[in-house]
Design goal:
- The protein has 307 residues and is mainly α.
- The chain folds into two domains: 209 residues, Cation efflux protein transmembrane domain (Alpha-lytic protease prodomain-like), CATH 1.20.1510; 87 residues, Cation efflux protein, cytoplasmic domain (Alpha-Beta Plaits, 2-Layer Sandwich), CATH 3.30.70.
- A three-stranded mixed sheet has the order 1-2-3.
- Helix 8 links the parallel strand 2 and strand 3.
């Protein structure tokens, strides 16, 4: 157990280091692309710099969340700050959606009345941004990000920013070769198309955790059926499953067992069988389980909401 515990702390520390490095790279991209946007008049480059600003803010949130998540549990916060990463990812997604909406409105305005764009300047600054984004992706994917939604949110932002940089470069090349100024606005809309759908998916996932929905892929009816098939189990109620954070699903249930189990000392074996059943049939869906064993008569003493 101590080895797994140490490994978890090492992984968390590695995540924080990677986030800090990528934050520095993203902040550099923000400054470079903002200067390039002001010099070239490119909305696509300005949009990409706004995206970089959002990334930088999101990475700050992710870094703070990862640091909070590593804090130990206390009697007041029994799960520690494990849910901080979900809150951070939710905030990142919400900000990304707001930025995407602004860019879309401005891009449609420029389709009708495109201003001049210095294509060569855009190519230079866009290339610098893309190189930094690729370096950030390499840092975040080294060692893997697993099921950590906070790291996935950070990686999503950097990947989207890299794709946005590609769109900026393509638009600049089109303007330089053909003089079609609307290409800059089209590239901005491409960036929006990259931001919004995957961000909505992330937002739905994090909100689902915050609402304590059943973990994806876990069928509670199947869980109930398997538990009821065990010897001495005659009922299962008050069955709940949720996620404390990404990769930490929990389950609790009241399990009615035969009265004799409490008289002959068989109850601990029933508990072992319940946990073994979950481990065998749902090994990837349930990290932590809590069972309350009770007799059939106990149900009469419980509030209706627990029956």
């Amino acid at each position: 157990m101590s080895g797994a515990h140490d490994h978890g702390h090492a992984a968390a520390a590695g995540n924080r280091r990677r986030l800090a490095v990528v934050l520095a790279l993203t902040a550099s991209v923000l400054v470079v692309q903002l200067v390039g946007a002001l010099l070239s008049g490119s909305l696509a480059l300005l949009a990409d710099s706004a995206h970089a600003a959002t990334d930088a803010a999101g990475l700050v949130i992710a870094l703070v969340a990862a640091t909070l998540a590593a804090r130990p549990a206390t009697s007041r916060r029994t799960w520690g700050y494990r849910r901080a990463e979900v809150l951070g990812a939710t905030l990142q997604a919400a900000v990304l959606l707001a930025v995407g909406g602004y860019i879309a409105v401005e891009a449609f305005a420029r389709l009708a009345d495109p201003p001049p764009v210095a294509a060569t300047t855009v190519l230079v600054f866009g290339g610098i941004g893309l190189a930094a984004n690729l370096a950030g992706i390499a840092v975040l994917t080294r060692g893997g990000h697993g099921g950590n939604v906070n790291m996935r949110a950070a990686l999503l932002e950097v990947v989207n920013d890299a794709l946005g940089s590609v769109a900026v470069l393509v638009a600049a090349a089109v303007v330089a070769l053909t003089g079609w100024l609307q290409a800059d606005a089209v590239a901005s809309l491409v960036i929006v198309a990259l931001i919004v759908p995957r961000t909505i998916k992330l937002l739905r996932e994090t909100v689902s955790v915050l609402l304590e929905s059943t973990p994806p892929g876990l069928d509670l009816d199947a869980v109930r059926s398997h538990l009821l098939s065990l010897p001495h189990v005659i009922g299962v109620h008050d069955l709940h499953a949720s996620q404390i954070t990404s990769g930490l699903p929990v389950l609790s249930a009241h399990v009615v067992v035969e009265d004799g189990c409490f008289h002959d000392g068989h109850a601990p074996q029933v508990l072992d069988q319940l946990q073994a059943c979950l481990a065998e049939h749902f090994p990837l869906s349930i990290e932590h389980s809590t069972f309350q064993l009770e007799t059939a008569a106990h149900a009469h003493h419980e509030p209706a909401a627990h029956r």
